[in-house]
Amino acid sequence: MLICWPHSCLSTYSALLSGTAIAQQAKPTIVLVHGAFADSSSWNGVITRLQQDGYKAVAVANPLRSASSDARLVSDVVDGIDRPVFLVGHSYGGQVISNAAKVHDNVKSLVYVAAFAPDAGEAAADMADKFPGGTLGEALASGEAVWRRSRSLH
Description:
This protein is of the alpha/beta class and 154 residues long. It is 44% helix and 19% strand. It has eight helices and five strands; from the N terminus they run E-H-H-E-H-E-H-E-H-E-H-H-H. The chain has helices at residues 6-17, 20-24, 44-52, 67-79, 93-100, 124-127, 136-142, 144-152, and strands at residues 2-4, 29-33, 56-60, 85-91, 107-115. A five-stranded parallel β-sheet has the order 1-5-4-2-3, with helices on both faces. Helix 4 packs across helix 5. The longest helix is centred in the middle third of the chain and has 13 residues, at 67-79. The chain is globular. The N and C termini lie far apart (38 Å).
C-alpha cells in the first residue's frame, strides 16, 4: 500500500513505477478511481504523464451509487485487463479500490491518494468524523457538499 498527498503523488508514482522489478516485467495497467466530488477527468494530467512513460492508464467513471456497486464496476474494469494492475483511489475512491481488489489476483498494488484507506469492515462514512478537524461528516449531514456541487453544475 502506498499513501501520498496530491502534491507529492507524481514524484511518488515515478519512483514507484521506475523500479527494476517492474522494468523487467510487463508494465502494469494503472486504474484510477476518483472520489465523491470529482469525475474521471480529474485524472487527465496523471494519465498523460503515465502514458508518456509507457504505461497503460484508465480513469474509471465512478458512478457514486454505493461502495459495493461502485466497487463492482471497478472490478468489472479490472476483469478486462490481462496484466498486472495498480489501483489508485482518491478520497472515497480509496474505499472503492479496497473493495474492488479483494477478488483479483492481478491487482498488485493499492495506492491511496489523500484517500480513505479503511480497515476490513470499515466504511468511509465511519471514518469521516474519526479524526479531529475533519468536516466531511458535517458537510454530508447538512447537504452542503451536495449543494455546492449542484451549484457548480448550473
